[in-house]
């Protein structure tokens, strides 16, 4: 009986937490579905990200000068302005940016 009560309370706690996230949103009033447009168990699509974030504004904000011009994560030599957002960004867990897999330059302002 004690195990059953524990399981029931745990399930109630999880349901309450999930409902609070759904109603309140966990990031600026967003719900999970606002970003997870392809289903809750899949990564958000770039379209979901770009519905709030403008790629031209991001490219301008992360622009570099001179020989470092193409080291812009939002407008780079490999992908231009079409780098998949979730290759570098994740909300639930920190992520290493895509460029770090091959390059050693640093992005000190990288928001994981």
TrEMBL record:
Its cofactor is heme c. Pfam families: Cytochrom_c3_2 (PF14537). InterPro entries: Multihaem_cyt_sf (IPR036280), Tetrahaem_cytochrome (IPR012286). It comes from Ferrimonas marina. Its main location: periplasm. The lineage of its organism: Bacteria, Pseudomonadati, Pseudomonadota, Gammaproteobacteria, Alteromonadales. Residues 1-20 form the signal peptide. Residues 28-104 form the Tetrahaem cytochrome domain. CDD domains: Cytochrom_C3. One of its GO terms (molecular function) is metal ion binding. It is found in: Periplasm. SUPFAM superfamilies: Multiheme cytochromes. Keywords: Electron transport, Heme, Iron, Metal-binding, Signal, Transport. GO terms for cellular component: periplasmic space. The keyword Transport applies. This is Cytochrome c3.
């Amino acid at each position: 009986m004690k195990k059953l009560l524990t399981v029931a309370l745990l399930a109630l706690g999880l349901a309450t937490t999930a409902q609070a996230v759904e109603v309140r949103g966990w990031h600026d009033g967003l719900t999970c579905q606002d970003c997870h447009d392809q289903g809750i168990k899949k990564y958000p699509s770039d379209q979901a990200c770009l519905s709030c974030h403008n790629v031209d504004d991001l490219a301008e904000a992360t622009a570099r000068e001179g020989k470092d011009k193409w080291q812009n994560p939002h407008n780079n030599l490999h992908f231009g302005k079409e780098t998949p957002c979730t290759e570098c960004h994740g909300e639930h867990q920190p992520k290493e940016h895509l460029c770090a897999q091959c390059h050693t330059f640093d992005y000190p302002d990288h928001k994981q």
